[in-house]
Amino acid sequence: MMKSIIVNAYGGPEVLKLKNIEKPTPKTNEVLVKIKATAVTRASVMMRTGTPYFGRVFTGISKPKIKTPGTDLAGIVDAVGKEAKKFKVGDKVMAATDLKCGAYAEYICLSEDDMILHQPENVSAEEATGIIDGGSTALAFLTDQVNIHKGSKVLINGASGSIGTAAIQLAKTAGANVTALCSGKNAELVKGLGADHVLDYTKDELARCDTQFDVIFDTVGKLSYRKTKNKLSTQGVFLTPVLALSALFHMLFVNPFSKKKLKFAATGLRKQEQRMRDFEKIKNLIATNKLKTVIDKVYALDQIQEAHKYVDTGHKRGNVIVKIA
Ligand SMILES: NC(=O)c1ccc[n+]([C@@H]2O[C@H](COP(=O)([O-])OP(=O)(O)OC[C@H]3O[C@@H](n4cnc5c(N)ncnc54)[C@H](OP(=O)(O)O)[C@@H]3O)[C@@H](O)[C@H]2O)c1
């Protein structure tokens, strides 16, 4: 038997129940991973609430199809199927399960063809799992959607969040001049990650800033494109990972006629080969200390409701981790 979080309905943190269930057994091409840490991401909150509603096409219309939530994990290979070749018992691994979920548990079986990689030795399980969501999302936006180079002027809003803290570091690695937009209490954090300039959103400092940005990455979907487009350079791009109807309208009817563009992508729905490519890059960046995981709070598995309540506030700094083993 093993401990696992089980959900039977969409709703608030109270739908997350700790249960004892059957421990899985790996099939021939699978590995059994003893999970050491998982992350409470904004995606796991969306899957818990079943919002936005169109997401239920993937997660289940009236109730969650998958009973054990959690999309990111790091752990140790505990057993391998007969035909599994890439991993052996005792290997440290990190994995993204995406819509298959299952990471809020003591054990999970993963196919060797799933998004699973060896975990670099220089990071902890908490750091490895914490970087997966924000790191991969930031990387996808900053490489697939825009062309950042030395001297590019990049504004990152929500700079203290999971995507934001990774985006600052990735944009700096690409040679950009980075302005971080966050609240005053997070100014030191974002400076420490490499931001060249910091603006306080609670004091409306962006309005008084006269920089023309090549890229505005609104990682938390809180800026209005209409109100900020005058801060974009002639061919500037506004990136958002949060889909709003206004953004959809803009992409369909305004982008074709405008040099300035607004771009949205659902990075988790891309082909596995693209996601794997980014996952490998993120692994290499953490292995070489070019990308650091910002960890806010660490909870135990039986505190999962508390962890979700905290993430629900929308004010976590970097990443929230659940330590399991
Ligand atoms: N499209 C995709 O592929 C994709 C993938 C992953 C995630 N997402 C979405 O991306 C969004 C961001 O995810 P995340 O995990 O990075 O978020 P997060 O970590 O929860 O963001 C929290 C941070 O946002 C800051 N913040 C809150 N209100 C703000 C405001 N008005 N202006 C500026 N900063 C503000 C908070 O700082 P303060 O406490 O100082 O306010 C906090 O540090 C979520 O909506 C998530 O669902 C999309």
Write up what this structure looks like.
- The protein has 325 residues and is α/β, with parallel strands linked by helices.
- It has two domains: 2-123 and 294-323, Quinone Oxidoreductase, Chain A, domain 1 (Alpha-Beta Complex), CATH 3.90.180; 132-268, NAD(P)-binding Rossmann-like Domain (Rossmann fold).
- It has helices spanning 42-49, 56-59, 125-145, 162-173, 187-192, 225-228, 245-253, 272-287, 304-312; strands spanning 2-6, 17-21, 30-39, 72-80, 92-96, 107-111, 115-118, 153-157, 177-182, 197-200, 213-218, 232-240, 261-264, 295-300, 319-323.
- The strands form three sheets. Strands 3, 4, 5, 6, 7, 14 and 15 form a seven-stranded mixed beta sheet that branches. Strands 10-9-8-11-12-13 form a six-stranded parallel beta sheet. A two-stranded antiparallel ribbon has the order 1-2.
- Strand 14, helix 9 and strand 15 (319-323) form a beta-alpha-beta unit.
- The mean pLDDT is 97.
- NADP nicotinamide-adenine-dinucleotide phosphate binds at residues 41-43, 46, 133-134, 137, 157-158, 160-164, 181-183, 185-186, 201, 219-222, 241-242, 265-268, 314-317.
